[in-house]
Task: inverse folding
């Protein structure tokens, strides 16, 4: 090997350049540089492009617990690499900007265009650190965490911040039903959440891989959301707004002369949830009134969803035009989005008995 090449490699090594940069600078292969490193016992420098705080997870406070909540749900530890990865939709980009600022001290979130059938872009944050990844593993995370994730080893005072991240990552809030659902493929994780939150909840173990933890009822839902959101400094705005909306809802328990309007909505095919929203009353008040009028809710739903023929409109009983949108066939049923020619009623994603 040429003496001048060896001297140049040793010189560039003293400047703490990476093997890749040295090979590019001298127009030789990376293996050539590595061979000289081994021959002369030269250390391999791992030069970072961006400095980061590797002590970020040494003590778990609000920021760290919130970060872990998102990692446990929408993040991952890349298998075989020292990488912590996050991918979110672009409207939630500011959450990753929080993490980037805490760890890097600057915004390193990147936006990419989806190359699949899904519309829109997504944002991503990659954290390259053996120390931080190992700390996450010590706290209870793993590379293949989908079915094995467990509740992290943190103090009870930080549970609410962790649960805020979990809810915003893999949960949803339904203001109309006073209901919270947290989804996970790890049944043990959901049972641990149930044991660590001080509200009534239940875990549903369905046949699919996804299990659900349900918190339902006005008192339980508001108590849980108040616990995780009150005095919080970091949160997903759209889900916190649902909590504030739910907190300020004052539903009436009586119809106050709206019985005829309720009947008309019922005849138009609206469900109890939609009727309650239109009338500004509770869903229970609508269901009670329908029972009082002798209108059976269960039979009405069946009659609205399952038609005798796929060419009959619910509203006017005339022929309707079928727009084959997201067509799904399962056994003897078929799913369409349909619109009636005469009354222009739109029936979205309803199921109809197939004609034999």
Result:
């Amino acid at each position: 090997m040429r003496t001048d090449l060896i001297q140049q490699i040793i010189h560039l090594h003293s400047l703490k350049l990476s093997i890749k940069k040295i090979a590019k600078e001298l127009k030789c292969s990376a293996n050539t540089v590595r061979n000289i490193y081994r021959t002369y016992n030269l250390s391999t420098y791992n030069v970072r492009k961006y400095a980061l705080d590797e002590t970020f997870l040494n003590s778990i406070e609000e920021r760290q617990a919130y970060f872990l909540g998102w990692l446990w749900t929408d993040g991952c530890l890349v298998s075989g690499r020292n990488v912590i990865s996050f991918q979110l939709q672009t409207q939630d980009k500011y959450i990753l900007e929080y993490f980037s600022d805490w760890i890097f001290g600057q915004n390193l979130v990147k936006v990419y265009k989806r190359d699949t059938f899904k519309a829109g872009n997504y944002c991503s944050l990659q954290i390259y650190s053996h120390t931080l990844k190992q700390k996450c593993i010590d706290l209870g995370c793993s590379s293949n965490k989908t079915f094995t994730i467990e509740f992290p080893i943190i103090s009870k005072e930080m549970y609410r911040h962790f649960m805020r991240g979990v809810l915003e990552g893999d949960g949803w809030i339904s203001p109309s039903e006073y209901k919270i659902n947290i989804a996970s493929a790890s049944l043990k994780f959901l049972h641990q959440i149930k044991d660590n939150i001080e509200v009534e909840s239940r875990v549903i173990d369905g046949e699919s891989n996804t299990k659900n933890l349900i918190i339902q009822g006005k008192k339980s839902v508001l108590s849980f959301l108040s616990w995780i959101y009150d005095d919080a400094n970091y949160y997903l705005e759209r889900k916190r707004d649902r909590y504030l909306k739910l907190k300020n809802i004052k539903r009436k328990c009586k119809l106050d002369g709206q019985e005829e309007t309720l009947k008309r909505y019922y005849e138009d095919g609206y469900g109890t949830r939609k009727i309650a929203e239109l009338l500004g009353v509770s869903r229970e008040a609508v269901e009670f009134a329908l029972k009082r009028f002798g209108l059976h809710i269960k039979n009405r739903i069946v009659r609205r969803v399952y038609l005798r023929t796929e060419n009959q409109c619910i509203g006017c009983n005339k022929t309707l035009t079928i727009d084959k949108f997201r067509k799904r066939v399962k056994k003897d049923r078929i799913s369409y989005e349909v619109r009636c020619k005469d009354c222009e009623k739109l029936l979205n994603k309803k199921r109809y008995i197939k004609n034999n």
Q: What stands out?
A: Residues 259-303 form one domain. Residues 311 and 348 are 15 Å apart (CA to CA). Residues 298-309, 348-356 have pLDDT under 50 and may be disordered.
